[in-house]
Amino acid sequence: MSDWTQTAIPVARHTDPSTSHEAAQSVKDVRKSQQAIYALIQALGGATDEELVRRVRSAGIPMSESGVRTRRSELVKHGLVVDSGERKRTVAGRRTIVWTVK
């Protein structure tokens, strides 16, 4: 991975509740969790958030659903993960984005 891993830090917005600030402070190594999500997307050749959550759980990675989405979102903001243009159906039948590495 590149230098982006050295600058990625957990943050909470000023308007977020105190629990969000506590969660941001409690993250031990965000870079490692971002790398895990990046590696999963890369290994799968693209994935939806729902697929990422299933893979994270099956791998025994200690990360919540919202944590998976947040890490993926951070990777998007860094320009490392992009919308593939493909859509899949969620378990609930809704269309969702398939994310891929850039």
Task: Walk me through this protein's architecture.
The protein has one domain: Orthogonal Bundle (Arc Repressor Mutant, subunit A). It is 50% helix and 16% strand. It is built from 5 helices and 2 strands. The protein has helices at 4-7, 18-26, 30-44, 49-58, 65-77, and strands at residues 81-89, 95-101. A two-stranded antiparallel ribbon has the order 1-2. Helix 3 packs across helix 5 and helix 4 (49-58) packs across helix 5. It starts with a helix and ends with a strand.
- What is the name of the CATH class? Mainly Alpha
- Percent in strands: 15-25%
Number of strands: 2
Query: How do the strands of the widest beta sheet line up side by side?
Result: 1-2
The biggest sheet amounts to: 2 strands, antiparallel
Uncertain spans? 1-9
Described by the principal axes of the CA atoms, the overall outline is globular
CATH superfamily: Winged helix-like DNA-binding domain superfamily/Winged helix DNA-binding domain
Global mean pLDDT: 85
**Euclidean distance between termini CA atoms:** 12 Å
> Rg to the nearest angstrom?
14 Å
Helix and strand content put the structural class at alpha+beta
Counted by DSSP, the helix tally is: 5
CATH architecture: Orthogonal Bundle
N-to-C SSE series? HHHHHEE
Q: Give the total of domains.
A: 1
State the CATH topology: Arc Repressor Mutant, subunit A
Helix content: 40-55%
Which helices and strands occur, and which strands form pairs?
Blueprint: H1 4-7, H2 18-26, H3 30-44, H4 49-58, H5 65-77, E1 81-89, E2 95-101
Antiparallel strand pairs: 1-2
Helix pairs in contact: 3-5, 4-5
